[in-house]
Amino acid sequence: MICNHCLNLNLQPMRPHRPPVFSLLLIVAALGVTACSKSTDDREPETEQAAAEERAKVAEAAEQAEPTLPKVDYWQPIAGALQGRFGGKCTEGLQMKPVATEVKVGSNGAVTIGTFSANLHEGEATLLRTPPGKQAEGVSLIGEVGELFLTLQNSGPGNTDNVIAKYGDKDISCSGVKDVLPLDGKTLFTTYAQQFTVKPRKVTCVGAGQDIMNRRKVDFQLEGNLLRVGTQTFDLNKVTTEQVMLSESGAAYAVGTEPQRLANVSFDEYGRLKNVTVNGFDQGESYACDSDLEQAAN
Predict the structure, then answer these.
(1) Lowest-pLDDT range of 93-107, 198-212, 254-268, 271-285
(2) Could you tell me if residue 232 is inside a domain?
(3) Are 127 and 78 in contact (CB under 8 A)?
(4) Quick one: 196 and 160 in the same domain?
(5) Residue 34 belongs to a domain
(6) pTM higher than 0.85 for the full model?
């Protein structure tokens, strides 16, 4: 028998249990934090590796970077002597056809011939001095930049100075020129004393024909009128030739004597001693000294 009382009950369908909204939010937040943490943890090794690689690149770049030293202007000592407007009697080509022209050289190295222009500072040049009493007495500068080949020649007191310029299909030669490279009879080392002077120090060298592992330290000095490398000494007032080589990467100073001996000292663009060579021929020891040997010895 069915209970009528039971039939009168207001029976409601059962509802699923719902947790409080706040609890759901906490669960979702917790899951989100866990997921983010896991994602971050998953990426962490890659991030650390990338950071390490970046630090290594920065360190390598710092090692390879040029030192923050000011560059030396090796043209400055001859800037005043270099400038001039050189005309005289000018001819062109092998036919020596007379032409009315002049070669202009500025203290900044700018060369102008008619509509043509170039700058010696952007190329290479050799300054050569032969002391009085020698067959080719005087001072010359031979410069080359782009298509320009320029020679300025001071032939010494009482002699004719000359200027020769070759560029494109032009070949200009001017004689009877005045005031070319007026260095007042000074040695090239005197002119470049500020840039080239090196106080007494040791340099690391190898002897001629020796293995590079047989390096040794010898005395070196370039100061006043003296160039000394090991047992070799040069009186700069008595050398038979002097040369100064100029380029964008630095400069070099070279001397020759009789009986024949040659020495060359080069500097980088920051004025630092780069290498030294001496060829004694039959007049004593020969040396080859450079910065690579110096670093290897330290």
Answers:
(1) 198-212
(2) yes
(3) yes
(4) no
(5) no
(6) no
